[in-house]
Each structure stands twice: as structure tokens, then as C-alpha cells.
Design goal:
Helix content: 25-40%
Mean pLDDT: 94
Low-confidence stretches: none
Bound molecules: 4-nitrophenyl phosphate
Strand order of the largest sheet: 2-1-3-4
Structural class: alpha/beta
Strand content: 5-15%
Distance between the termini: 18 Å
């Protein structure tokens, strides 16, 4: 028996944590977009979705106002409060999806053991349309930087969701 499968016949939930540096731009946007995609496919009960940052300096803050505005224009409401990544996150989540190599390095150093490092995945690897190898930090960029992040995330998150629940499946 798979110990992660619930005993009551319900399918195990996919537990996904999105990680960037400050947890105020890229990862809360990923969380909000993914939540929206999962909801639109009627899969909300099959997922646990959250986000965190490898740097805790913005803990407690809402996402950056520029990211909230850009996301809102596409119909996403971002309400997450920034928090720092912890070693417990590696016990509570199955997939830790990071935005760039720096996030990968910093998250690896937070992982409690070597096996946990295997849970870290690069967001850009789920892309099906775009060829970027990372999701670029928009913090010091203009409005186009935020639009680019949203374009890339929409592509990658669609790829991630389809890799977990092939399109057309209910997930059960
Ligand atoms: P994020 O962007 O990692 O996508 O949330 C940043 C947010 C804050 C900072 C850098 C990047 N900062 O230096 O405070």
C-alpha cells in the first residue's frame, strides 16, 4: 500500500508549493494562477496549493502592488501573505516549484535531507510554448517584466497541471 494514499478511498491530494525569493511577485502569482486553473477544471479538492520565499524580509506582506495590478487585469486576485520557506515545507509538500537557479540553490539549503531536494523542480521545465529556462525576477523591472512573468507562468502552470492531471481527466 502507498502510505501517502488516504485509507478512505479518496485520491491523494497533489501538494504544491511555489517558491521565489521574496514571495511577493512570482510565487504568489503562480499560486493565484494555478488556483484559478485548478478551480476552472473542478479539481480544487485534489490540490493543496501555497507559496513561500527563500528570503523572509517581506513576511506578512501582500503581493507587490504592481504584480497584483497586472494579475488583476487577467482576472487573478492575489491575496497570499508572504512567508519564508521552512524545512517543514519539504515534509508537507510533494512538489516545490522554484522560479530560477538561485531559488533552487537556496531552497536546497533549507531541505532537511537529500531526498527532499528531489522534490524541488524548476518551473520553466513545465513550459510547452516558451523557451525561457527560468522565470525572471521582475522586482527591479518595468511593467513589461510583470507581464512577461504572467505569460511564462500561464504556460508553465498549464504544463504542470496537465502533467499531474492529463486534460480531459477529472483527476479521480
Ligand atoms: P519575487 O521578487 O522573488 O518574485 O517575490 C522579489 C521580491 C523582493 C525582492 C527581490 C525579488 N527584494 O529584493 O526585496
Amino acid at each position: 500500500m502507498n502510505p501517502t494514499e488516504p485509507q478512505n478511498g479518496a485520491a491523494a491530494k497533489h501538494k504544491i508549493l511555489f517558491v521565489c525569493l521574496g514571495n511577493i511577485c512570482r510565487s504568489p502569482a503562480a499560486e493565484g494562477i494555478f488556483r484559478d486553473m485548478v478551480e476552472k477544471r473542478g479539481l480544487s479538492d485534489s490540490f493543496v496549493i501555497d507559496s513561500a520565499g527563500t528570503y523572509g524580509g517581506h513576511a506578512g506582506e501582500l503581493p507587490d502592488s504592481r504584480m497584483r495590478a497586472a494579475a488583476s487585469r487577467r482576472g487573478y486576485r492575489l491575496t497570499h501573505r508572504s512567508r519564508k520557506l521552512t524545512d517543514d515545507d519539504f515534509r508537507n509538500f510533494d512538489i516545490i516549484a522554484v522560479m530560477d537557479d538561485s531559488n533552487y540553490e537556496r531552497a536546497s539549503r533549507t531541505a532537511p535531507d537529500v531526498e527532499s531536494i528531489g522534490k524541488i523542480h524548476r518551473m520553466a521545465d513545465f513550459a510547452t510554448k516558451h523557451v525561457w529556462d527560468h522565470i525572471p525576477d521582475p522586482y527591479y523591472e518595468g511593467a513589461e517584466g510583470f507581464e512577461l512573468v504572467l505569460d511564462l507562468l500561464e504556460d508553465c502552470l498549464d504544463g504542470l497541471l496537465n502533467s499531474l492531471v492529463p486534460n480531459g481527466s477529472t483527476g479521480n
